[in-house]
Amino acid sequence: MTHCKSNKHPDRPLRILIEAGDGRTNSAIFENNFLGHCLSLGAEVHVLSPGVCFKPFVERYRLPGTNFSYLSFQQAQKKRYRYLIRLEEYLRSILSRFGFRRVHHWMWKFFGARANAIDASFLSSLLDEVQPDCFVTADLNLGTSRGLVGMCRLRGIPTIGNVFSWDHPFHSHPSRPDQLTCWSAFMRDNLVDIGGFLPEQIEIIGAPGFDPYSDPDGKWTRQEFCDKIGLDPDRPILLFATLGQMMPLWDETGTFRAFLEALDNAALPGPPQVVLRLHPVSVDYYFDEFRGRKDIVFSRYSRYCPGMRWCPSRDETILAGNLMRHADVCISPGSTITIEAAIFDVPTIVPTFNPIMSEEYEQFFKKNWLQKHFRFIVEENTIALVNSSDELITAVRRALDDRTWLAQGRKKIRDYVIGPLDGRATERLAGVVVECASQGKWTR
What we know:
Blueprint: E1 14-19, H1 23-30, H2 34-40, E2 43-49, H3 55-61, E3 66-70, H4 73-76, H5 82-97, H6 101-117, H7 124-130, E4 134-137, H8 146-155, E5 159-162, E6 179-182, H9 185-193, E7 202-204, H10 222-229, E8 237-241, H11 254-266, E9 273-277, E10 296-299, E11 304-305, E12 309-310, H12 314-326, E13 329-331, H13 337-343, E14 348-351, H14 358-370, H15 374-379, E15 384-386, H16 389-401, H17 407-418, H18 425-439
Parallel strand pairs: 1-2, 1-4, 2-3, 4-5, 5-6, 6-7, 8-9, 8-13, 9-10, 13-14, 14-15
Antiparallel strand pairs: 11-12
Helix pairs in contact: 2-18, 5-6, 6-8, 11-16, 13-17
């Protein structure tokens, strides 16, 4: 391996410091060989993560040229000057609304970075030891990198923030790295319009977490897939993906109950078989009463890393890809699978009703989905929204009869929302990071 030399430290190779504070982000990047790509480009990598205290985590990712340090999630989330930070965020939103993004950029540089850096004082000795040429946060929205981004700004270390999910541009970002990476034009445009970032700060790379979907070895035939999870390849497969337990008293079973009751009464040909795909934050035992049905197969990510929540392996992601690839219809009340299914051109239906908590559900869905990231999905007629059990069954019938229904909408999702789907997003992320480190500064 040829090492790229650091500009600031010409006697050693480039050093990348990456913070991965969450299991799903870690998997999306490390499971797809981000570390190996950086090493092949001549850079050493130092991983900062809560998972470091879990021996299998380190053993899984350790390569020659990598090092690991523990990140305290609790310390990283502390805000000593929380009111000043909120004031800066409020002023930033006003400036962004009226188009004064460069004023906001200056405000972060000379005020926000300093206020945030104070909260990363516990990591000061780590920076002294590692002396990175670039700092990367694998998930900008998580917030655990906030202080470290500010501290690196004050030390002249270039910073990169990976915007992990398609809905994250709609969240507040108190951390303001020099450069961002994201999936697509959709995310870039909203990071500019809502987040107040500058267009030249943002690099479109695709979604690293979707790289396994393009792996030729991970594409199973329908027969192979059905044999693995216990389905009949000759019967229709209806994928129902839950939204996740968003609030403690939130009922997540009501929509699924209504769907099953309507499905039983509809007597669709096949008859269809259902794969209940539980979101990682769904509560298993809420759905246990449905396990006795022979026409339902349960599926979910199961790999777990202490301190980092769910942490799917590449093999689990490949299975999820094949689940969408071979589903005849995808039904979900708003999980990311509603757009992932478009990768495989699967007709997708979003039920916007829950008969058990109808009022609360309607308010939650409108506020958190339809008025934010789902607005484009709805306005561009890319998927089917249904407001009752009867509408849901009608939509399922139509999707089973006509696979091309709303196909142009799914193409819009692939082209504008998801971004490049060539399996090389993780490789591009590594390239952006190493280039930034080799320049010793923000290059755009």
